[in-house]
Amino acid sequence: MRLLIKQRVFSWTDSYDVYDEEGNPKYFVKAEFLSLGHQLHVYDCNRQEIGVIHQKLLTLLPAFEIEVGGMIKGGIQKQFTLFRPKYEIDYNGWRVEGDFLGWDYDVYNGCSSIIHISKQLLSWGDTYAIDINDPADELDGLMLVIAIDAANCTQGAS
């Protein structure tokens, strides 16, 4: 299955619409306008909040907690590197490898690739495709991708 994340071009805050592979609205993501640290809220197509990504404050490098259904499920923290971004991920036992800035990376559970993320070319605004092997991983995969995007966009050493 596939989800398409489309960044809203004309928006005061980070906002994304998420569609299924047939173009039907599935989720909506919106950042808080005024908050300490970056906070992104994820809503289902009925505008019910289903998750939040919170930036942890007072950390040397960007770090985010991922909350789903009111419970913290894990998080990511950017690691110090000289050239390419790298993250320490504590989320579902998953690991992530690939080019984060180029939006071409994979999520692994053990030795198996379970999710592939890629940037779609020639589209109005940024559009990303998330290919998910198991539909049960859909929401968790979406939350992780949004957290990685937030970490990439947050100012800090890299």
Rg, rounded, reads 15 Å
Taking strands numbered 1, 2, ... along the chain, how are they ordered across the largest sheet?
A: 8-7-6-5-4-3-2-1-12-11-10-9
What fraction of residues sit in β-strands? over 45%
Report, as a whole number of angstroms, the end-to-end distance: 33 Å
Residue share in helices?
Answer: 10-25%
Provide the residue-averaged pLDDT: 86
Q: pLDDT below 50 for ≥5 consecutive residues: which ranges?
A: none
Oligomer: single chain
Query: By helix and strand content, what is the structural category?
Result: mainly beta
User: Could you give a short account of the major beta sheet?
Assistant: 12 strands, antiparallel
Report on the structure:
By secondary structure, the chain is mostly beta strands. Helix content is 10%, strand content 50%. It has one helix and twelve strands; from the N terminus they run ββββββββββββα. β6 (63-68) and β7 (71-79) form a beta hairpin. The mean pLDDT is 86.
Give a short synopsis of this structure.
With 158 residues, the protein is mainly beta. The protein is built from one helix and twelve strands, in the order ββββββββββββα.
